[in-house]
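Fold this sequence, please.
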Amino acid sequence: MAERAQQPPAKRLCCRPGYNATCRQGQRVGGTPCGGSAATQGGSSKSQCPESLLDIAARKVAEKWPFQRVEERFERIPEPVQRRIVYWSFPRSEREICMYSSFNTGGEEIGSSGENSDETRLPFRRGIALLESGCVDNVLQVGFHLSGTVREPATSSEPELVCSVSVSFDRCKITAVTCGCGNKDIFYCAHVVALSLYRVRKPEQVKLHLPISETLFQMNRDQLQKFVQYLITVHHTEVLPTAQKLADEILSQNSAINQVHGAPDPTAGASVDDDNCWHLDEEQVQEQVKLFLSQGGYHGSGKQLNLLFSKVREMLKMRDSNGARMLTLITEQFMGDPRLALWRQQGTTMTDKYRQLWDELGALWMCIVLNPHCKPEQKTFWLRQLRRWNSVDVCPLEDGNHGSDVFPSTSMPARYSLTRPHRTVFTRAIEACDLHWQDPHLQRLLISKRSRGVKLTRLCFFSAAFPTEHVPTACARVDALRSHGYPKEALRLAIAIVNTLRRQQQKQLEFFRTHKKELLPKGITSVTNMEGWVGHPLDPIGTLFSTLMETGRGNEEGNPLFPVHCFLEEGESFVSLAVETALIGLGQQRVMPDGLYAQEKVCRNEEQLLAKLQEVDLDDMLVKIFRKQAVFLLEAGPYSGLGELLYRESVPMHTFAKYLFTSLLPHDAELAYKIALRAMRLPVLESTAPSGDLSRPHHIVSVVPNRYPRWFTLSHIESQQCELASTMLTAAKGDARKLETVLESIQKNIHSSSHIFKLAQDAFKIATLMDSLPDITLLKVSLELGLQVMRMTLSTLNWRRREMVRWLVTCATEVGVFALDSIMQSWFTLFTPTEATSIVATTVMSNSTIVRLHLDCHQQENLANSARTLALQCAMKDPQNCALSALTLCEKDHIAFETAYQIVLDAAATGMSYTQLFTIARYMEHRGYPMRAYKLATLAMTHLNLSYNQDTHPAINDVLWACALSHSLGKNELAAVIPLVVKSVKCATVLSDILRRCTLTTPGMVALHSRRNSGKLMSLDKAPLRQLLDATIGAYINTTHSRLTHISPRHYSEFIEFLSKARETFLMAHDGHIQFTQFIDNLKQLYKGKKKLMMLVRERFG
């Protein structure tokens, strides 16, 4: 708390004109102990004397009446009466002092202030430590003012600190504090706490004086002059200028000070017009909130703001008017956050945590305006404030914010945008200002007691006279009652609402059973509950659940808040009511709201509620409730999210059903499976919503239809659907009938290939656990799901496709040889030709697969025949990518190999590239078929084209290999390939390399059957080398002219080296020297403008 450096001015003027000099003499003597005699201290003595009537009356007056009103009411107040009123006016409870000096009452949560994790560092705890260590001295109470000094012991890093502390109080509330420590915080510092607790715990040790004005009334003129002169002497440096100024004004007849009757007294207590509230430093509240907001969620600012909201709720529960005051200050800072306008301008969304803070802000205002005992003028003031905030453009909307998540595109229907209500986070609080608590039926609920033959559990919230208020608003009343410290009334109302929900549920069930034949054929086109209870801004189900569970836990821990028999039927408990309420709310069929935030909130609130339910241990009574609610949910038709009639855009039940399934499975497996299978539906992904239950399985590619609004959480919803299916698969292990049913449900309702693949993997893992034999039924389910994934992703792009194919082969291997043979027989519906040959068939024919399956020779041959047939079919369909794999797979079968080779030859002319043909040609050479390799290489050469500047082309090595192969086969083969080389290759360096290699050895030196020829080298003057030589020289000439067209000086040296290589090639001809000289002379003549380059040419070549 930012304490002021000096005492604030007095709140009222004090004068006692009824007293004269004679009656004042000797009537009031200050300085007696604060507590007075033992008999007058209200039972503080050990003798346990009955409290006096004076003390009883003084205490009541001190709590309710401002002291000015007491003075005005009675002409003369006896001094003992004044003294007892002043005594009882100081707070007697430590709870409020703790509330204003720590985030949590009593410091229950260690480190709740965020930065400090040590409980002893909280101001309240530090104040207690200072008090108990005797650091509080010079405590003095003068009227309604308490002062003293608090000594802070020295530490290793800080010297001893002595702080002067003063506290003003009125009607048992501290109204102002001052401390010399200079601490700036929202809460009281430890020194204020220490002094206040000293007065609470040791009132008898505090000397009590009447207000200073009363003491001054007892003095005559000489005494007053002496008093003033001594005061000025002691504090002359501080007060002398002020004293002289006041003296001048008093001596001036026309001064303002002489126009006022009486004089201020800071110790005289409150005036009639003063608000009676605890001291709250508004400036520090505003500064702290602004600081937390500026940190944007970093440094734990979100946690700090939530703690401030908790402090507001704590104040409301204590019925402290500062709760609304503090929330007003917080709201003003939130509305002034500059990021709101920035986000609005940029069209971006606020962060999720920040949006949750706004939700809590709206909920708190709802609690405040629903205060059952607030005055009309207070509600009018709050309504005016709320409307002002609500009218600001940047005020966040209730179901999202001003970003792009609510209205994603121009596809939004125009009528929707025109009729869409502008509901901000304050709209519900504004609407709640019209609510009241005077309804007779509501009053009977709040004050009813158990009477003979009538129990509260049979009372319902709605009546004929009070029919229109919907459940979330009714639950907001419960939250308001709890927040304002009316737990018994809140519990009564909560139970009445739960009974109403039960009755409504029963009526809905009866209605659907009566009209089932009419409704089922029609299907359903609209949902009965447009505003769901889970994910609702007012959180009705969460409120009911918390109210009932807190009462139930209190009873279990031996601290019952209320007698159970006054509220419950026999066999019921608050916990069972809370659980049943949660099940009713979670099972409600409700429409998916618009906008990203609203949809995420639905998921988040559902998960939070389920997390609370999972903390409850199920006993026999709760299992009975689960069974009852499960039957209701299955049979309630359009009113239930698990009914037979499901609206296309209803919130899915997957997460809730998974909880029900796991809870019911040990007690009623059939019912558990009915719930889970019914919840598997996801009609928003269907082209038309189904009107009945599970039917024949079908396969649908995952496509979300064009629709408005968008489902932003669809991926999360599909993952939850997958989790539900996985849970059922795990539980159904060993039960073939249930596994088949679950499989049908998965195939019908799940439309995401990645999720089906995950389920297939999960089933495979469960079926092949190391500590047990494989479950063949579950393995077949896994395989069937894998086959569905293959079909779904066959014609779509999926980055996990290769992983899926490999996994499927592994799964089929575990199932058995018949499964492998089956997927190879129907490969065209499952795999691409490349996948079928490179992954499926290759894996099937590997040694590891044969060993794993323990196959005999006959089975191996049959499997190999299937693989070869697959390979040939794939090669026919996609020779470019499958020919080599087909040849490899058919190596051990001559007929199949020849067939594959013929497929390659047939496709070589048009359907295959030179790279593919070269690769197969090299494979043929490696397998010992050089002539076939030669033929494929010549076919590849016909598809190749190397230009003059492609001297680093990847096909160069293939060309060199083809020429080497032809050279090794003989002169005829070489003669046949050289024309192809000349036609396809225009790069001079490549041609010269081929020419040089052909002249080094004799053709056919490594020919077929290892036959050797005569060993005579081929002549460059005769075919075919003459043709190659001429082509090489021509390529050098053309390349030279091409280079000289755009040559730069930095490439001159490189060009000279190129000419040197060209000369080597020219000289291989018998007249090469003459040709090269003519070539150089021609260059000098054509490019004489490039003087520097031609000079270099002359230097090197003459």
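Residues 229 and 571 are 80 Å apart (CA to CA). The first helix runs from residue 21 to 24.
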